[in-house]
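Module 6 notes. Inverse folding takes a fixed backbone as the condition and produces residue identities as the prediction. Think of it as a translation problem where the source language is geometry and the target language is the twenty amino acids. Below is one complete input and output pair. Work through it position by position during the lab.
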């Protein structure tokens, strides 16, 4: 999942080198923290959060195939 989110985030931003994904596991849930440059935050979130919601939907579908629960948090 981490690689999937990383590929998507790097494709969206102007500075792909600033994209950092931290992965942590709590109970049965994997939490992916996406860190991007402040100037790229709007590109990853999108208008009214549409892009962020789309990223979460793709990850949720991929996680469902593996019978896992994954949460994506977008941070600066």
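Target side of the pair, the amino acids:
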């Amino acid at each position: 999942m981490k690689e999937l989110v990383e590929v998507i985030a790097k494709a969206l931003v102007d500075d792909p080198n600033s994209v950092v994904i931290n992965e942590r596991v709590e109970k049965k849930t994997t939490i992916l923290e996406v860190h991007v440059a402040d100037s790229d935050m709007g590109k990853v979130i999108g208008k009214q959060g549409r892009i962020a919601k789309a990223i979460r939907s793709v990850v949720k579908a991929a996680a469902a195939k593996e019978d896992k629960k994954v949460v994506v948090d977008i941070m600066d």
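Reference fact for the lab report: Residues 6 and 47 are 20 Å apart (CA to CA).
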